[in-house]
Structure formats: structure tokens, C-alpha cells
Amino acid sequence: MAVIFDALPGLEVPVGEIAQSLGRMWSDTAAQGGSAPANDDAKATQVNLVLHLGFRTTAADALVQFQTAVRFSQRYPSRILVLCPMVQDSDETDMRAKIYGECHLGKTKGDARCVEFVLLNYPRTTRIHLEDQVSICLSADLPLYYWVHRFSDSTRLADYRYLLSRAKRVLIDSALAPAGTMSYPWPKPAALRDLVYSRLLPVRQMIGQFLAGYTPMQLVGGLRTVTITAAPELTTEGRVLQAWVQRRLSACGGNMAGIEFSGSRGEAGRLGVDFGYADPEHCFHWTGSLTDGHALLEADYGTGRNRLPASVSLLAPENALGEAMLS
Asked: Are residues 179 and 227 in the same domain?
């Protein structure tokens, strides 16, 4: 994992001098004519975010997630701590640190907002000191969010119970998580958020707003089948979408035991939802292509066919992160 640590941007500093080094970083940037906070308001943070890069993370992937965190911070000024654990067979025995900062200008020069990153690279032998270092690196009295990315084994999460217990939200991507992650005994199950569910927000809103034009009894009366169509690369999105549909139909008073839920394989980039009814003239159909951004909703509940073309996309990663953290 030192490969990942070395690949990420930042200035390496002694672990014991992180706070002082952050102050010097901004002073040096300003002296060189770079974008630096003009006052403490520009450095005011709203959240602490810990991005934990698991052993299945590659250097290229780590850079992608790092930039997602940067874009997230443009909307929600943050202190971001990136954890880079070293692999078990590493010969390194010391913890290493990097610092990194960016300032983003709004519509006016006085609207600058700055983000500070601290990166920690640590071998397992220093794991017992990690909690103390995390508490030092984060801003006091601000909510903590813990983003777990590409862990190799969900059981390894037990080593980070401190973060799991303290975090207001624990963020995972079930499309990338190892088997057993969703059934892991989380210390605070209510704090868990799935980034797949968050990415699907535009789809959930589209379907929900369209079906809100019908009564709950129209939707569940005589409902026999629900079919979720998903392209192979969207299998997890299809699973999460199906679980959401089940919850919403149950909230409408539907008899879940009497409804057959099934999945089917769709074309590349496509998702779909179909309701089948005892009355063959009743129907609901939604299909969307994430490739070309086109979607279509159709329904008929005895009052004539309603057909609505629309556009569709998943939330951008930084927006999905914000949705998962703050909703």
C-alpha cells in the first residue's frame, strides 16, 4: 500500500508535525503566489471525512477516489483523512504522513473555500497508535464520516471499531464490497449507507414521482409480479433497486407474500422495472439507458395509458457521497 501512498499527491511530513506542517503549507503557498486561504473562514470545515483505502485498491483507483473527495469538498468544506494501510508482508515499520491542500474560488474572491488532506500510511505494527493519530488529525467537534473503500475481507473491519462506532455515517459501495459486507455485525447498523443506493437517487425520484399520481390501492391491487431488469455491469444496482421497490410497495399496503419478484438480464447500460397484474390491462413499465441517458415511463390503471419520456443518469460520485453522508 506504500505504492498507493506514494502515488497520491501531497507533501511528506513527519507524523509528529502534521498540524504545524499544514500551517506552513498554506504560508508557503501564499508566498509563492498560489491560492491559499486569506482568513480562517476560508478554512472553516463542515465535516470530517475518513477515506479508508482497502487492500483491493489500486494506485489508479486511489487517485479516482481522492479526486472524488476533492470535488465533494468544493461543496462541503472538509478535513479529509486518507488511510493507506500497508500490506501484511511489508518490511516497513514506521507510519508515514503526507499533507495536501486546495482552495476553490466561488463567484467572488472572498468566496474561497479550502480543503485540507492528511494521508497516513501505516504498517500493522503501528495499528495500535492509529486511533490516537486519527483523533489528532481531525477537526474537533465536527461530525465524522467513515468511507470504507475496497476492503479485501469484511472481517478486517473489526480492527476499526473505533471509527465504526464514532462515525455518524459509515459509507460503503456494495458493488465493490466483499461478500458478507451487508451482513457484517455493524456496531451502529442505522449509520450504514450504501453508495449504490445514493447513486440511484435520480432513478428513485423519477419512478416515485411518476407513481405518486396513482393511489396506493391502484399500485398494489391485483399486483402479481415485479421484474427488475439490469445489465450485467449493473447487477448490484438492480438488486438495490429491487429492495427499494419492495419497501415502497409494502408501504402502499401490498401483500409481499403474494407478489413474485424476479430479475432478468438487460442490455448494456440498461435498468428496468415492470409490474404485472391480474388484470392484463393494468401495467407499469420503466426503462432507462445510462448509456444514452434516455428513459421511458408507462402506466395504465384503467384510466388510459400514461406515457412519459424522460432523461436519466446516476448521481456523480461526489454527489452520491454527499447524498449518503448528509441525507
From this structure: no
Angle between helix 235-251 and helix 201-211 axes, rounded to 10 deg: 30
Summarised one tens digit per residue, pLDDT across range 133-186 is 898 888 888 999 999 999 988 888 888 999 999 999 999 999 999 888 888 899
126, HSE (Cβ side, Cα atoms, 13 Å): 21
User: b/e per residue, 24-38, with b = 16+ CB within 10 A?
Assistant: ebbeebeeeeebbbe
Domain match, 64 and 129 both: yes
Cβ-in-10-Å burial (0-12, 13-18, 19+) of 204 comes to middle
In a domain, 323, yes or no: no
The verdict on residue 26 lying in a domain is yes
Q: Is the dihedral of CA 184, 187, 188, 192 positive or negative?
A: negative
Q: Name the band, by pLDDT with cuts 50, 70 and 90, for residue 42.
A: very low
CB contact at 8 A, 103 and 36: yes
Between 41 and 166, whose confidence is greater?
A: 166
Amino acid identity of residue 209, one-letter, is Q
C-alpha cell at 37: 486561504
Pairing mode, if any, of strands 169-172 and 192-194?
A: parallel
Torsional sign, CA 157, 71, 58, 178: positive
Q: Torsion angle of alpha carbons 313, 318, 320, 321, nearest 10°?
A: 170
Supply the CATH number for residue 233's domain. Answer: 3.40.30
